[in-house]
Write a structure and sequence with these properties.
The chain is of the alpha/beta class. The protein contains twelve helices and eleven strands.
Length: 372
């Protein structure tokens, strides 16, 4: 019998067989649309699914380095072009909340402006650093100052993006149990839901005498291109977040913080030197340390200990379970869906560390655990 050779068709763009269980590019975009964006952004749901079905679009995305092909990066780059007036059809579809129109315009823009999309994706880091995190930071910073007996603090935010969290004392925060912190007259008003029966401490933060941000690529809200990129990282059909970001950027632009560019391990000593001697330096990290190799996290911790040779230093963290060195995990499992709020106070001869709470969704939900 003659031997029959059947030649299977080769893979289309983005559809190569997954290796080791990893998703193909098409599957990544489909999952993003059908799962990640499904309940929060109908526009991005339609756009991401449409991209997943277009071989031409997937080939265009593959022009970017592998680490820059994620939907959040490519969609933000497309949104940036729309906001800049360089993709008017896409901008119009977004403004009209037209899912079908946005899907078609996104594919057209990607195919016609592949080089521009890739250039933006390579140049920029996606940003989600809104002041919603202040609902976690405010009570933790106030607690750090209480424990040290500090009358003033100097804030050092690591992984600061645009430094919006450095205005933690200038925003208003309302909690679901009726408690409130911060400035009730601020143009930036936030809310957070309390989990459990224990209230948060309502102690006011002391005076903030220094605001210093550290980032590999800090964002200057007074620069038009940088400010547009922050807007581009928001999903276009979430008007409440857009309005809040505008208020946050206006607050930051009115009194811009000092932003230091570079690796945190190398730059933090310079930041400490800029905090007045009679103030408590409070270093904050909110979902930043997961981007550090483990060895760098330990070196970062060593920098804090070095700075405490001459005065007390506090570190307030909100990181995934087991991510922040020395912070207790409370017996929780890694990747458990929530984060641990940590407070460490470095002294001349002692280190006091405590897990003071749990939080979810970057501060949207908070369980305070510490005795205050």
């Amino acid at each position: 019998m003659a031997r029959v050779v059947v030649r299977m068709p080769g893979p289309t763009a983005g559809s190569a067989v997954p290796v080791g269980g990893a998703r193909t590019l098409a599957q990544v975009y489909r999952h993003f649309g059908e799962v990640d964006a499904a309940e929060t952004s109908p526009l991005y749901e339609r756009v991401a699914v449409a991209l997943s079905k277009s071989d031409e679009a997937l080939r265009a995305i593959e022009a970017a380095p592998a680490r820059k092909r994620h939907p959040t990066v490519i969609l933000a780059a497309l949104h940036d072009l729309a906001l800049a007036g360089r993709a008017p059809a896409l901008a119009a579809a977004y403004a009209a909340s037209d899912g079908d129109g946005a899907a078609g315009a996104a594919i057209d823009t990607l195919l016609q402006m592949t080089d521009s999309v890739v250039a933006i994706a390579v140049r920029r880091q996606t940003r989600s650093n809104e002041t919603g995190r202040c609902a976690v930071l405010y009570p933790a910073i106030a607690e750090a100052a209480r424990r040290v007996g500090a009358n003033s603090v100097g804030l050092i935010d690591v992984g600061c993006s645009a430094g919006l969290n450095l205005n933690v004392d200038r925003v208003g925060i309302t909690y679901s149990n009726g408690q409130s912190l911060g400035d009730p007259s601020s143009s930036v008003q936030l809310s957070s839901s309390i989990v459990g029966d224990r209230p948060i401490p309502t102690r006011a933060m002391p005076e903030v005498v220094a605001r210093i941000g550290v980032d590999l690529d800090p964002v200057d809200v007074t620069d038009a291109d940088d400010a547009r990129w922050l807007r581009a990282c928001l999903w276009p059909d979430q008007p409440e977040r857009v309005a809040r970001l505008e208020a946050e950027m206006a607050l930051a632009a009115a009194a811009p913080p000092l932003l230091l560019q570079g690796d945190a391990v190398e730059v933090v000593p310079d930041a400490f030197a800029r905090v007045p001697a009679d103030a408590l330096p409070v270093v904050t990290t909110t979902w930043a340390l997961s981007h550090f190799p483990f060895e760098s996290r330990l070196r970062f911790l060593h920098r804090l200990d070095e700075a405490a040779a001459g005065r007390a230093v506090a570190w307030v963290s909100a990181e995934g379970v087991g991510v922040a060195p020395t912070i207790p995990t409370l017996g929780d499992r890694r990747a458990s869906g929530h984060s641990i709020m940590g407070l460490a106070v470095f002294g001349r001869s002692a280190l006091r560390v405590e897990a003071i709470g749990r939080c979810w969704s970057e501060g949207s939900f908070l369980a305070w655990l510490a005795d205050s």
